Amino acid sequence: MTNGVCVRPVLNRVFDTQTGTDRVVGVSCGSTLVSKCPPCAEANRRLRMQQCREGWHRDTEPEPPADMDDVQDEDESAADDTESTRRVRSTRRRQDAADLPKVEMDKRTVGATFTAPNGKTYRPSMFITLTLGSYGATHRLPRHVQGKGIVPCECGVVHGRTSPLLSTPVDPDTYNYRRAALDALHFPKLVDRLMQNLRRRAGYKAQYFAVVEPQKRLAPHLHAAVRGTVARDTVREVAKATYHQV
Fold first, then answer.
1. pLDDT tens per residue, range 5-44
2. Residues 6+ positions from 242 with CB-CB distance below 8 Å
């Protein structure tokens, strides 16, 4: 810890196909919590600071890469895929998917600015949290409802914070394990598609920081800080349509 080395490295066994030998290699855990690994948490904190200095707080547009014109999103490449003879993944839209009208794209990434009556300029941003839907009732801590006192879990028991039942299904026979597994498998694709659709509806290629965390029920959970502002109704509309499509 004193020398800035990970205190809980992940040990991986590496097999050398040339010599036929194997060895154990330690990889940093990459934790962002000081309570778990102070050196990795400090390294991640400094990385975020550097990223903010170089991107988040910019008030000018970054230089686009030379091959930017060659990059296409899924919708734009759909026509090319259908004409190719090679086997490709279909990108056709579902007929029952909600129609998300596009707006004219502005060639910017830093978000709009607003000037207050006192002359001060503000460049707002927003924080988005996206949670997957319920797959069935889970054991929860009791909550207090005004006028009703303590309300227990749906199973009728008042759990403590150390109860091993917390976040486990109340009824395993009716819990939708299949949907939970599919959501976890496709979550990276869901996030990628969500940002594409959100940018189309917002009208600019918004910059964002995002992190995916597992909830206690083990469902992935997204936190994203986005430069600029988008109406809440628009975010809800995009999230719903994207989940249905993916």
1. 898 888 888 888 888 889 998 888 888 888 889 999 999 8
2. 190, 193, 194, 197
Q: What is the CA radius of gyration of the chain?
A: 23
Distance CA 151, CA 157 (A): 9
pTM of the model: 0.66
For residue 100, give the nearest of 237, 243, 245, 244 by alpha carbon. 237
Q: For 216-240, what is each residue's pLDDT tens digit?
A: 888 999 999 888 888 899 999 999 9
Contact criterion met (CB below 8 Å) for 166 and 202: no
In angstroms, rounded to a whole number, what is the distance separating the alpha carbons of residues 41 and 29? 10
The residue among 133, 135, 129, 134 whose CA lies nearest residue 194 is 129
Alpha carbons within 13 A on the beta-carbon side of 45: 9
Alpha-carbon distance 164 to 151, whole Å? 19
Strand partners, 130: 222
Q: Work out the end-to-end distance of the chain between its first and last CA atoms, rounded to an integer number of angstroms.
A: 43
